[in-house]
Design brief:
The mean pLDDT is 95. The protein is an alpha/beta fold. It has seven helices and eleven strands. Helix content is 38%, strand content 20%. The strands form two sheets. It has an eight-stranded mixed β-sheet. The protein has a three-stranded mixed β-sheet with strand order 4-11-6. The chain starts with a strand and ends in a 9-residue tail after the last strand.
Amino acid sequence: MKTYVAHYTKLKERKEYILDQLNKIGASDVEFMEDYDKEVLTQDLIDRYYEADQAKFEQVAKITKDKCGGGEYRILKDSEISLMIKHVEILKKLSNSDNKYAMILEDDCLFLNDYSEEMIEILINSCVPDWDVIVIGGAFDHSICTYRDRYCMFLLANHPATNTTSSMIFKKETASKILETFQKFHISWDWQLNHIFYVNDFKVYHTFPYICKQNNFKTSIQN
């Protein structure tokens, strides 16, 4: 199984950490997305991906705000923009690959129990065929979402359907459809994905229990 990791190169301890995590599960094909660190972003590059527009922000935010509240308009920090560009570029790589799906992680992902890559693939292939995205963990427990159906170890989430963006599995077709319909982001990546998943009516399943969670590293995204 192909695994992509969004990584900020200055956080060397994070790379050592996630490599250890991936070694523990026996990950066989790992690629780090290390381009687009915040220090190398130019305004021209930022403008290709991000638009600071309050009206569009509110439109995208609505699906999440209606459930969770909060989400006041603000201009995103370069660190947030950098992470989102990395995620978009990973989706491009998946869309242009020969892989049917891929695991997309951030470098603070902590795998639970004794899962192996082989076990995760067996789990993926046991999901109902109509899945578009599988959320395998995140910063919160399952109460972050509500659910409309259960299938074995999978819960089909209502929208909004993310649990942060630290650990998700995307089909190649899902990545391609996102890139076809997505122009620029206007808000943090998890809220942007909530809107993308909603407008495309993607089937977003959460594993139950979760396979992983976020480690409690001090956040770098707001710096």
